[in-house]
Amino acid sequence: MVKGELKEIVQNLNEQGYNDLYIDGGKTIQSFLKEGLIDEMSITTMPVLLGGGSPLFGELDMMQSFKLVESQIHLDAIVQTTYHRTSD
Question: Which domains does the chain have, with CATH numbers?
Answer without folding.
Answer: 6-85 (3.40.430.10)
